[in-house]
Amino acid sequence: MQGKSMIVDTSLCTACRGCQVACKQWHGLPGTKTKQTGTYQNPPDLSADTYKLVRFAEGRKEDGKPYWHFFSDSCRHCLDPGCMAGDQNNSIVQDKRTGAVLYTQGTRKLNYRAVREGCPYNIPRQDPRSKVLCKCDMCIDRLRDNMVPACVQACPTGALHFGDRRRILHKVALRVVELKKHYPKARALNPQDVRVVYIVTDDPDTYFELAEA
Amino acid sequence: MPKFTRRQFLGASGALAGGLALSSLGIPLGALQAHARDLSKAGRIKTARTTISTCYYCSVSCGLLCSTDQKTGQIINIEGDPDHPISEGSLCAKGAAMFQMSDHNQHRLAKVLYRRPFGTEWEVKDWDWAVEKMARNIKSVRDQDFMYKNAQGQVVNRLETIGHMGSSKVDNEECWLITTMARALGLVHIDHQARV
């Protein structure tokens, strides 16, 4: 099964957060009350009401020049999901056609800590009221109607791409070759293990400590 | 025919469509419940009336697709129009939040809230009271501080003691109206968060 895949090309991302808003809009998720913490990253973390979050990271490179990296974080839809390891009752499923990893209502009976620790990217979150585990569902309902995920459709800079996995991996390879001309550190993160492939131009740690597994 | 409320109707049709779709996708039917609510949205959009519109927040004017439920006449989704020659379906954070401007958003204020000087609580007031109050304040400040000539004796006709802070949620035409009104009053401190 090849299924579907997505590119998150951080070299094109301007952190407008259109993807983040489009995700909330489509899923009908409420806003989160937050406080000004000195960063544009808002809300501060993923939650049961936030499946997609643009992370902002700033600092200085070795040569002293400042960097400001944007990382549109969400579920990677692993080919072999770590979160499914402890799932005994089939409450986490992989869609046959697309390969999307989906959390069902049955996840409320799972051990939240074990599921979260099984994820190398720290993605799953628990709804405090219903105890159901939540994360990105690749807009599985939209895919059924031949629409692309809401975040991909919204992206104004073309940083997000969605399509058949074979073609997406080909695109990733071409893009990395192109980027390497200007950014020697450019590479794709875990392209063989995940469906949501991030392309970075710097060390992954400078984007987010869990950017790469 | 029994009368359905909107919620019952959507619940029933959504669950049905969801069940069919899920079984064809190969998802165990135990998963049906979880996605019935989500699937109902894609199903509803398929049968909804689609209207083409334009985002009004900036001069890029990205294309929008508005889905209106045929039964209820309510907007159920707004997203980018993939066929639009300029935006090709994309939207920025403001455009992507367009749905919030529909009456579907229960967080929008429906009444005037007033906090008196040094007050700590919001008071609910009616529009007549608020418009009267604003007009009175503007008039008295303008009468008092309007500057016909500056220190050099040049005609300036300006009012420096009132500023206007625009909203990030007004459209191009509203911006024009606000600017025109502010300039007519002689305001020079006019600001507005027109874009993201």
Q: What can you see in these coordinates?
A:
The complex is a heterodimer of chains A (213) and B (196). Chain A is of the alpha+beta class and 213 residues long. Chain A has two domains: 4-76 and 140-206, 2-Layer Sandwich (Alpha-Beta Plaits); 82-134, Alpha-Beta Plaits, CATH 3.30.70. Chain A has helices spanning 18-27, 112-118, 140-144, 150-154, 165-180; strands at residues 4-9, 53-60, 66-73, 92-94, 101-103, 125-126, 133-134, 160-164, 187-189, 196-200. In chain A, the strands form four sheets. A four-stranded mixed sheet of chain A has the order 8-1-10-9. In chain A, a hairpin with a 6-residue loop joins strand 6 (125-126) and strand 7 (133-134). The longest helix of chain A is centred in the C-terminal third of the chain and has 16 residues, at 165-180. The mean pLDDT of chain A is 94. Chain B has 196 residues and is of the alpha+beta class. Chain B has four domains: 1-47; 48-105, Single Sheet (N-terminal domain of TfIIb), CATH 2.20.25.90; 109-144, no CATH class; 146-196, no CATH class. Chain B contains five helices and eight strands. Chain B has a three-stranded antiparallel sheet with strand order 1-2-3, covered by helices on one side. A three-stranded mixed sheet of chain B has the order 6-7-8. The longest helix of chain B is centred in the first third of the chain and has 20 residues, at 6-25. Chain B starts with 5 loop residues before the first helix and ends in a 5-residue tail after the last strand. At the A-B interface, helix 1, helix 3 and helix 4 of A face helix 2, strand 3 and helix 3 of B.
Summary, kept brief:
The complex is a heterodimer of chains A (213) and B (196). With 213 residues, chain A is of the alpha+beta class. Chain A has helices at 18-27, 112-118, 140-144, 150-154, 165-180; strands at 4-9, 53-60, 66-73, 92-94, 101-103, 125-126, 133-134, 160-164, 187-189, 196-200.
Structure keywords:
heterodimer, A: 213 residues, alpha+beta, Alpha-Beta Plaits, 2 domains, two-stranded antiparallel sheet, 5 helices, 10 strands, globular, B: 196 residues, N-terminal domain of TfIIb, 3-stranded antiparallel sheet, 3-stranded mixed sheet, disordered N terminus
